[in-house]
Amino acid sequence: MNNRPFRLATIHATGESFDELVLPHLAAASRLARWLMRNEHDADDVVQEASLRALRYFRTFTGGNSRAWFLRIVRNTCWSWRANRFEALTDPFDEQQHSGARPASDPETLLLRTDDVTLIQQAISHVPERFRELLVLRELDGLSYRELAGVMDVPIGTVMSSLSRGRQAFRDALDNQLKQSGIQKRTHPREQEADAVP
């Protein structure tokens, strides 16, 4: 009988380690999980579970884009968690917003920046989930269309059309947020330039 402890394969056939292929993508995994789970603590748990799954199945990684492979595991883990848990509809406490730290800039600039972030967060939360996921991966994490197709397991054409619909849904949601806030409807920079020309 073999008394050696069981060891997971942490070196890929290409000679690269798990640390080299997966760990650089933890920040992107955390962002994706936060947007999908809508709760920072659950997102941390999901990323940890996804990391364990990635390590456990690292020997099955066939090469290619490790970022897309790992983010697909994170995405699938999020969906598994959401299917198995009751999701409480609460706003998480934002420690940074409510802390006593002094602002890095003048109060007016800080207020405007905070308002912009709040408007964007509210608008993106009103975008349908299938589009929100694509927008976060593309616009915040910078994934290419090919990487998105790999993560979402859909053709590139579907990614492109879904991103177009998602961006339009985001623009509509942002316009609605601006109306509710009593702020003038935003205009496209080209429209502003056209209005400025005599």
How is the secondary structure organized here?
Elements: H1 18-21, H2 26-37, H3 40-56, H4 66-84, H5 95-98, H6 107-125, H7 129-140, H8 145-152, H9 156-181, H10 189-196
Description:
With 198 residues, this protein is mainly α. It has two domains: 9-91, Rna Polymerase Sigma Factor, Chain: A (Orthogonal Bundle), CATH 1.10.1740; 106-198, Arc Repressor Mutant, subunit A (Orthogonal Bundle). Helix content is 65%, strand content 0%. α2 (26-37) runs parallel beside α4 (66-84) and α6 crosses α9 (156-181). The longest helix has 26 residues, at 156-181. Mean pLDDT is 76; it is low at 1-8.
In short:
This protein is mainly α and 198 residues long.
Under CATH at level 1, the class of the largest domain stands as: Mainly Alpha
Low-confidence stretches: 1-8
Number of helices: 10
Helix content: 55-70%
In total, how many domains does the architecture comprise?
2
CATH H-level superfamily of the largest domain:
Winged helix-like DNA-binding domain superfamily/Winged helix DNA-binding domain
Total strand segments = 0
The major sheet is characterized as: none
- Give the structural class: mainly alpha
What is the C-alpha radius of gyration, as a whole number of Å? 21 Å
Strand content: under 5%
H/E topology pattern: HHHHHHHHHH
Q: Shape from CA axes?
A: globular
CATH topology of the largest domain, by name, is: Arc Repressor Mutant, subunit A
Mean pLDDT: 76
- Quaternary structure: single chain
CATH architecture field of the largest domain = Orthogonal Bundle
* Alpha carbon gap, first and last residue: 88 Å
